[in-house]
Amino acid sequence: MTKGINELQPARLEQVLSARRLTKGQLATLVGVAASTVTKWCKGDQAPEAETFERLASVLNVQTEWLTRDMLPSVSPPLYRSNASALKAARAKLEARTEWAQEIAFLLAEHVDYPQINLPERAFQDPEQIGDGDIEAAAEECRTRWKLGLGPIQDLSLAAESAGIIIVREETEISAIEGLSSWSSVVGHPMVLLSADKANAFRSRFDLAHEIGHLVLHRHIPRASERDRYNQMEKQAHRFAGALLMPATTFVKEVRVPPSLDNLLILKQRWGASVAAMMMRLHALGLLSDDEKLALFKRRSARWGSKAEPGDEKWTPEGPRLLRRTIELLISSGVLPTEGIPRYLGLSAGDVEKLCGLRENYFSTSADVVELATLRATKLQTQTVGKPADDQSAVVSIFGGRK
């Protein structure tokens, strides 16, 4: 392999091509080289010259040094909300974006402690082992662990992050895939990526609850490729989401029987769940028969259409806080300078802003930073806050309490 001052890591190049949804031919055109040259770079048979290397990093909008770093181990194979074969490139993009979030979390973890994982542990090896009672019990245990009681959940995203789940919510330009979940061995935490494209708070909450269901129920079950097995796991995650958001013992007491669209529309704002989700929950609990569910869905479609519902605009989608608060804390405590963070992470400022839930132009314009947590006592009594010793990193706590 041809070597220069900077040595390109082929796996990095493949990953960024997926994240940008670029083909090798498209990259070749943008950089001004032959398509065969890009293929050789990806195989590790050839490395670009210094000038071409700079142009390559510029076109891909990453730091040149980032392209030379060793790759972290991949996240576990994600479970998707869509299994269509036509979405192969789209899934590759979301996996790459999730691995970028993993790398951000990994690098920031040199300075902080994330919340400890607090999820129900299940050892199911096959979806056939999972019954409806198992799902209801897992959702109930989740609420108990998170001290949520049996009423409506005020902020599911905050509750999930407080339980150690690292969440990314960004516009993906892939409407067919609403989310994915996986586990990171290097960070030691589960990861969830949610699509923000539809900007619907009720759907986003359900998507997050659905992914939590996958993390709890299907952690030890391989990603399904067979349609029947995939559909079974999706139904199980759906039931978990309904049980997590709408506990049977309390939710059903507020529903008039037989349920009407108007009654459910009122409950929508209280429980933070769409009318469609509540109808599915009532069917799962046996309070709606198949025929009654079908008739109610037909009335819903006739009144409102098949997608939007009245009151969708009254809730703002819940945004992740963990990575954003981590960066704000490191800046406010003097551990890392604002302008140096994208360079430290190796990605463009725009990518860091999107993956961490920061406002646009966060790294190029000044803003008041609200301190949301305080520095913990350092490991060494003589260590100065914000100036770690050579062999010790400042340890900071992300969550001091609910917002």
Task: Please outline what is shown here.
The protein is mainly alpha-helical and about 400 residues long. The chain has helices at about 10-20, 25-30, 35-45, 50-60, 90-110, 130-145, 155-160, 200-215, 225-245, 250, 260-270, 275-285, 290-305, 320-330, 340-345, 350-355, and strands at about 80, 110-115, 165-170, 180-185, 190-195, 395. It holds the Pfam family HTH_3.
The residue ranges in which pLDDT falls below 50 over 5 or more consecutive positions are 1-5, 370-374, 376-396, 398-403
User: Which shape, going by the Cα principal axes?
Assistant: elongated
Q: Please trace the helix and strand order, writing H or E for each element.
A: HHHHEHEHHEEEHHHHHHHHHE
Q: Strand order, biggest sheet?
A: 1-4-5-3
Helix content: 40-55%
Quote the average pLDDT. 88
The radius of gyration over CA amounts to: 23 Å
Salient structural properties:
403 residues, mainly alpha, 434 Repressor (Amino-terminal Domain), 3 domains, four-stranded mixed beta sheet, two-stranded parallel ribbon, 45% helix, elongated, disordered N terminus, disordered C terminus, Zn-dependent peptidase ImmA (M78 family)/DNA-binding XRE family transcriptional regulator, Rad_response_metalloprotease, Cro/C1-type_HTH
